[in-house]
Amino acid sequence: MRNNTHSKVSNKKTVTNRLLSLGYLALSWSLLVWLNFNIEPNLFGHFIVLPSLGLLSGYSAYLIAIKNNKAASIR
Known about the structure:
The protein is an all-alpha fold. The protein has helices at residues 2-38, 43-65, 67-74. The radius of gyration is 17 Å and the shape is elongated.
């Protein structure tokens, strides 16, 4: 009985973390696209900074999404 309850709570946290990570990803990438079209053209900004920020925001969203899985595996 206890494992079943823990499983339901764990699934709810997983869904919450995934929704949070997708929201974060959508917000950060929309801001990056906006920034891409609003800064003056230069090679460093467009080919180094913006792709790096895109990759880092994707990785951060991934870490938020798997946060519950790590906590569940520790228990």
